[in-house]
Amino acid sequence: MAEQEKQFAIQKIYTKDISFETPNSPQVFVEKWEPNVDFNLATNVQQLDENLAEVAIKLTITVKSGEVVAYLVEVTQAGIFVLSGFTEQEMGGMVGSFCPNILFPYAREVVSDLVAKGGFPQFILAPVNFDALYAQHAQSQQEQTGNAPSSDSIN
Question: Could you tell me if 65 and 32 are in contact, meaning their C-beta atoms sit under 8 angstroms apart?
Answer without folding.
Answer: yes
